[in-house]
Each structure stands twice: as structure tokens, then as C-alpha cells.
From TrEMBL:
Organism of derivation: Flammeovirga pacifica
Record keyword Transport present: yes
Annotated TM spans: 32-52
A Pfam short name: SecE
GO MF term list: protein transmembrane transporter activity
Protein name according to UniProt: Preprotein translocase subunit SecE
Length: 64
């Protein structure tokens, strides 16, 4: 049990003293960047899906 308590104490010390946390502004900027990148990626995938679906529908109409 002593090892568990020691681990928790060391973990707390590591998180409070040695980890460099980003500022609120940096976290906000990173979140906005991830949101914009996700939307752009979703749009690209959506357009590609639509184009493939459209192309296959036309191909099936010609062949069928």
C-alpha cells in the first residue's frame, strides 16, 4: 500500500511542478484550429463521397 501512496504523491508532484501547462489562450487557439481542420476534412471527405457516388450512379445507368 505504501508504494501506491508514494506513486500518487509523486504523480501529483510531477503534475504540479514539472509539467508545463498551456495557457487558456493557447488552449482556445488550438481548439479552434482543430475545429476548423475537422470541418475542412469533413467537407473534403463529403465531396469525395458525393463525387464517387455520382460517378458510380452514372456508370450503372450506362451499363444497366
Amino acid at each position: 500500500m505504501n508504494k501506491v501512496i508514494q506513486f500518487i504523491k509523486e504523480s501529483y508532484t510531477e503534475m504540479t511542478d514539472n509539467v508545463s501547462w498551456m495557457s487558456y489562450k493557447e488552449a482556445q487557439d488550438s481548439s479552434i484550429l482543430v475545429l476548423v481542420a475537422s470541418v475542412v476534412f469533413a467537407l473534403v471527405i463529403g465531396v469525395a463521397d458525393w463525387a464517387i457516388n455520382f460517378g458510380l450512379d452514372k456508370l450503372y445507368q450506362v451499363l444497366g
